[in-house]
Design brief:
Elements lengths: L2 E8 L5 E11 L2 E4 L6 H9 L1 E6 L4 H7 L7 E3 L6 E3 L4 E11 L6 E11 L8 H13 L7 H18 L2 H32 L1
Helix pairs in contact: 2-3, 2-5, 3-4, 3-5
The structure holds flavin mononucleotide (FMN).
Length: 197
């Protein structure tokens, strides 16, 4: 099973880095699989630690994939790292080994502390839709336009019916990114047509 989480790491000089990441975990073992090049990978290798944040604040997922990475963090206690200030729970991890796939290595990490920071208040369809939308936005250059459009149309139903202010904000950021991407693609296509004439 893969959980969609937010991974926080720090550079050797202590600067926080925040990235949404799918994480597998069983017992005390967590596995992170960053595609290289990756700041998360570099930070884990250089500092030997990371924190996995279990959060329902989907603005962080949508924000990170649209260039908004400055979310408040606070230090954790068992490893020299930070967690999101606003998270339901977090796991403090220490690096055990790296299974070195050249494109997507697996960082095998041991959980040193698993902490609850706030109560879980139930499932929300708009939050799930924002996560799916954030994955689509991170793959705009790889997926056909029609697929993006049809998936957005379906996900918009859950947003319209069940979103609160955070989910609406997150969805707006995602839709802006989609519009900018296709406007730029259309402009680039016009330029190359004009050059060919
Ligand atoms: C829900 C979700 C899950 C993601 N899971 C992964 C993942 O498992 N591995 C990965 O490399 N990127 C994943 N991404 C994309 C990263 O968040 C993004 O590429 C990020 O910048 C990672 O690179 P970095 O370590 O250099 O920050 C995911 C994005 C979203 C929205």
């Amino acid at each position: 099973m893969i959980h969609e989480t937010v991974v926080t790491t720090v550079t050797p000089d202590g600067t926080p880095h925040i990235a949404p990441m799918g994480v597998r975990h069983e017992g005390d073992t967590f596995v992170l699989m960053p595609f290289l090049p990756s700041a998360t990978y570099d930070n884990v290798v250089l500092t030997g630690c990371a924190v996995v944040n279990f959060t329902t604040d989907v603005r962080v997922f949508a924000g990170c994939v649209t260039g908004r990475r400055a979310w408040p963090t606070v230090p954790v206690h068992k490893v020299p790292c930070v967690r999101l200030d606003d998270t339901l729970a977090h796991a403090e991890l220490r690096l055990v080994s790296i299974n070195g796939d050249p494109q997507r290595p697996a960082l095998v990490m041991q959980c040193i502390a698993l902490c609850t920071d706030a109560p879980f208040t139930g499932f929300n369809r708009a939050q799930a839709a924002v996560i799916e939308g954030a994955v689509l936005v991170s793959r705009l250059a790889m997926l056909p336009h029609e697929k993006i459009e049809s998936e957005i149309a379906y996900l918009s139903i859950a947003i319209g019916k069940t979103a609160g202010p955070r989910e609406q904000q997150a969805w707006q950021w995602l839709m802006e990114a989609v519009n900018v991407f296709y406007a730029r693609s259309a402009a680039a296509a016009r330029v190359s047509t004009e050059e060919a004439l």
